[in-house]
Amino acid sequence: MIMENITTMSGFLLMGFSDNRELQILQALLFLVTYLVGSAGNCIIITITTLDPQLKSPMYYFLKHLSILDLSSLSVTVPQYVDSSLARSGYISYEQCMLQILFFTCFAWDEMAILTVMSYDRYVAVCLPLHYEVIMSPRKCTWALAAVWLSGGVSGTLYTASTLSIRFCGDRIIHQFFCDVPQVLKLSCSNDYLVTIGVANILSAVAFACFIGIVISYVHIFSTVLRMPSAESRYKVFSTCLPHLFVVSLFLSTSTFAYLNPTADSPTALEFLFSILYTVLPPTINPVIYSLRNETIKRVVRKLLSSTKFTV
């Protein structure tokens, strides 16, 4: 019914991954489990970094905000897809779609920005340890996070404002499980989308500059680590830096592929996979990666789990 009436509706039809009802239910349940696991993990990180006095350094301060971003990012796309799949309706209103683009762009940009800040924090901690407390003072960390959140808000607003100017025609079918911007742009029936592409190019250039900054930070970090005489010191640095590097690499590589790869009328399974890899997987596995490779976090989590009453 929705397929027949989609041209007369103001919204869009999200096709998801399959037309098979059984597969739709299975995918919805998998997404639901992933959302619950990711939300629980990020909530644990947020809780312990807020309450435990051992986790008050800038690294954990940034990690807490990364978890807030991850939790928010998951909540933008996954619940709506689960609900529409279980209800056997892929319909999403125009307003919901634009809000999804707004918040997803904001949180994606914020994630890129905070990963850049976190790489700089690790650079200062490893390469300039004597100046760490001065460079990464509480006030400067607060300003850095304010810049992160502000930049996300500005980029999301600009991106969404340019998308609002697009006129759509024909079947408003999006071959994704959320309002993916490349798929939305494909539905434009005029050259209105050129403004959005211009904004996207500007944001991509800034994101590339952030990537270069992250690479430079890690070149200095690994150069310093390899000169350390103590194997224990090298292990300690690698245990905090390698998880961060993995998260950055996964997020950037999959999102770059998704946005630079030309959109097809019939997206392949690989394109769907990459969309999951940069939208759902990083926010879900970030808490696991950081907790498994960080002894302090593991110790605090064990304390939380073994205690019958966790007091502030």
Automatic annotation (TrEMBL):
<keyword id="KW-1003">Cell membrane</keyword>
<dbReference type="GO" id="GO:0005886">
    <property type="term" value="C:plasma membrane"/>
</dbReference>
<dbReference type="InterPro" id="IPR050516">
    <property type="entry name" value="Olfactory_GPCR"/>
</dbReference>
<dbReference type="InterPro" id="IPR017452">
    <property type="entry name" value="GPCR_Rhodpsn_7TM"/>
</dbReference>
<feature type="transmembrane region" description="Helical">
    <location>
        <begin position="237"/>
        <end position="260"/>
    </location>
</feature>
<feature type="transmembrane region" description="Helical">
    <location>
        <begin position="141"/>
        <end position="161"/>
    </location>
</feature>
<keyword id="KW-0675">Receptor</keyword>
<keyword id="KW-0297">G-protein coupled receptor</keyword>
<feature type="transmembrane region" description="Helical">
    <location>
        <begin position="25"/>
        <end position="48"/>
    </location>
</feature>
<dbReference type="InterPro" id="IPR000276">
    <property type="entry name" value="GPCR_Rhodpsn"/>
</dbReference>
<keyword id="KW-0552">Olfaction</keyword>
<dbReference type="GO" id="GO:0004984">
    <property type="term" value="F:olfactory receptor activity"/>
</dbReference>
<dbReference type="Pfam" id="PF13853">
    <property type="entry name" value="7tm_4"/>
</dbReference>
<feature type="transmembrane region" description="Helical">
    <location>
        <begin position="98"/>
        <end position="120"/>
    </location>
</feature>
<dbReference type="GO" id="GO:0004930">
    <property type="term" value="F:G protein-coupled receptor activity"/>
</dbReference>
<feature type="transmembrane region" description="Helical">
    <location>
        <begin position="193"/>
        <end position="216"/>
    </location>
</feature>
<keyword id="KW-0716">Sensory transduction</keyword>
<feature type="transmembrane region" description="Helical">
    <location>
        <begin position="272"/>
        <end position="292"/>
    </location>
</feature>
<keyword id="KW-1133">Transmembrane helix</keyword>
<keyword id="KW-0472">Membrane</keyword>
<keyword id="KW-0812">Transmembrane</keyword>
<protein>
    <submittedName>
        <fullName>Olfactory receptor 115</fullName>
    </submittedName>
</protein>
<keyword id="KW-0807">Transducer</keyword>
<comment type="function">
    <text>Odorant receptor.</text>
</comment>
<feature type="domain" description="G-protein coupled receptors family 1 profile">
    <location>
        <begin position="41"/>
        <end position="290"/>
    </location>
</feature>
<dbReference type="InterPro" id="IPR000725">
    <property type="entry name" value="Olfact_rcpt"/>
</dbReference>
